[in-house]
């Protein structure tokens, strides 16, 4: 009888421990602006169990576009959003009472490449004058950085090009492949896939041309940050672990980990895309978003005519979480 009683007690303890573990797990709804190898550290955090180590259960959804991603965040369809930090400025300028705060940076350069329909081994920016250029959504980071780079190279996007911006973000690649366009901005791995299939040729990198900016950032509403302070810190810690892991491992190793998120892309193509981003420093190695990057972003937005107003760094950026996890 004593043995039976011991077994019953042991089982009860296991059930109690299981219940405690469930109670300490925080569920996070995470919305990403698009599915891209550009966000490799995020997928590493998911696949390597870094979120689980921090007591988080993260549900990832792809919301396709800055507007829809921010709508999901503001309407509580998402707790945290991975999106361009310019979207937080747009919301702030509308005098929102519960605006979004940037707390952890994931990428620190533009992630697009200039893809030409025809091969051009001796490409120069002058070559795109009078061409038909399939641009990105007005007000989005790719479009603003694209126009900034063109202007820095002496090209007037609206005067020197036949610039078309009437295609939804998710359909840009397909439109370029089937349409009569000379140039387009594409993320990886799409740019490399197009090159491999002979549908386009990478001739320049917007990331290399534009410098360091807080291109893609994790943000959340003020109210959620106040209510779930511990969860935001845990989330930031998991991202930092992933950033360090990506920095310390090869493109091939990273590709093996994130491959489940890109089932239709060849593993070697993924590795090539990751290597391209690593070589130009696109992946931030820590989550801290510094003021110099923020000011560079506002300059890019201002030159593209999309900056609604100058937004103080301290109003929309919280580096407390990044600084704490980096100091541990």
From TrEMBL:
<comment type="similarity">
    <text>Belongs to the bacterial solute-binding protein SsuA/TauA family.</text>
</comment>
<keyword id="KW-0732">Signal</keyword>
<protein>
    <submittedName>
        <fullName>Binding protein YtlA</fullName>
    </submittedName>
</protein>
<feature type="signal peptide">
    <location>
        <begin position="1"/>
        <end position="21"/>
    </location>
</feature>
<dbReference type="Pfam" id="PF13379">
    <property type="entry name" value="NMT1_2"/>
</dbReference>
